[in-house]
Amino acid sequence: MTPFESTASWFVYGILSIDSQTAFGQAMHFFVMDVLKIFFLLVLIIYLMGLLRAFVSTERVRSVVVGKPLWLGRSMAIGLGSVTPFCSCSSVPLFIGFVEARIPLSITFAFLIASPMINEVAVVLLISLLGWEVAFWYVLAGLVVAYIGSVVIGWFKPERWVEAYVWDIKMRQAQEQQALANGWRARHGFAWSEVKVIVKRIWHWVFIGIGVGAAFHGYVPQVWVTETLADASNWWSVPAAVLLGVPLYSNATGVIPVIEAMLGKGVPLGTSLALMMSIAALSLPELLILRKVIRWPALLLFVAVLVVAFILVGYGFNYFYAKL
């Protein structure tokens, strides 16, 4: 149990005395746990990124990144995402940090797609519950989706859709230069100002997004999802799985036991994995928070690319496993 889980349990079940077996209790526990986790990550990562920029100028960071081939940058971002066990909302602070560091958005989106879907804990659980073949093909599909998805998003030049407060280059360059010249106190002040600017802009969206996810987590019964998707003959089961996964907020590790239960009830493998990908990488709370960082065109592009990718992955798994 993580410190966030234990603190949430102490507060919700101990201090508030809410029954842990009720839907309300589970929703409240989920809400408190994720609020603590996401704000901790948000403050920590933005501060560290700001501190890095106060020691190493943005132009220097950008020159290193821009000097590398995009395929290498994407591959490195996907590799980083694959070893960081973040849920989709927890990946947003690092996404913001990448944007702040002027890393190209096509590379940044590669991380944002890969991080929630693929991590070592999820892979181990997939192997133990579903076998190494399913784990291998799931990871391969996740890597392909992250790479190709980031390439497609990059075609549309998404940098133009970053909110101005995140990417206000002229103002921040002047602050960076002052911090670089004036020692530790100035650098700390610059990093902390970055935290205050961004947290002030998005804190209420974090609460709203996690609240929506917590409500679905506590009140949407697993059996309803399973019964809706169980009929393999329905062509719409894969798109329905992807759409159902958006509000059902969790991480890849947490959703694997649900997928195992669905497979036991006869839900096709491709449909189940499409749901898993959607839950892990395309959550409604994540989208609500991202909207305060990127504008509607970039957000809709991100959603469209992943929805199409997950549907294709679902149909592909269903087709090939039906032939076995």
UniProtKB/TrEMBL annotation:
Matches recorded under InterPro entries: DUF318 (IPR005524), UPF0718_permease (IPR053166)
Topological category with respect to the lipid bilayer: Multi-pass membrane protein
Pfam families, A to Z: ArsP_1
Entry GO CC: plasma membrane
Localization per record: Cell membrane
Superkingdom of origin: Bacteria
Keywords annotated in UniProt: Cell membrane, Membrane, Transmembrane, Transmembrane helix
TM stretches of this protein: 38-56, 76-98, 105-129, 135-156, 202-220, 240-259, 266-284, 296-321
Family recorded in the similarity comment: Belongs to the UPF0718 family.
UniProt protein name: Permease
Taxonomic lineage from the root: Bacteria, Pseudomonadati, Pseudomonadota, Gammaproteobacteria, Thiotrichales
